[in-house]
Amino acid sequence: MPVSYNKLWKLLIDKEMNKTDLRMVAGISSGTLAKLGKNESVTTDILVRICHALNCDIGDIMEILPDEKGKDENEDN
Question: How far is CA 49 from the centre of its chain?
């Protein structure tokens, strides 16, 4: 299921923070930050740490995107 972390990057701009600041305050690795930058999956623990560090809710940093057109969710392909 595709996700987008665009909300996270916008929130960082609003809080006048950069990605390095986020990495330090949330205690996440540079590899995890790279995954976020590529909209790849990360653990719930990481997302919770980011939310605590930024004092926000999970919906403030990410959104779940609809599946590709024509692809059935229940298909096992």
Answer: 11
76: Cβ–Cβ under 8 A, 6 or more apart, which residues? none
> What phi, psi does 30 have (nearest 5°)?
-65, -30
Residue 11: Cβ within 10 Å count: 17
Total-model pTM? 0.83
Task: Report, as an integer, the average pLDDT of 24-41.
Answer: 97
pLDDT category of residue 68 using cuts at 50, 70 and 90: confident
Q: Where are the alpha helices (DSSP H) in 1-77?
A: 6-14, 19-26, 30-37, 44-54
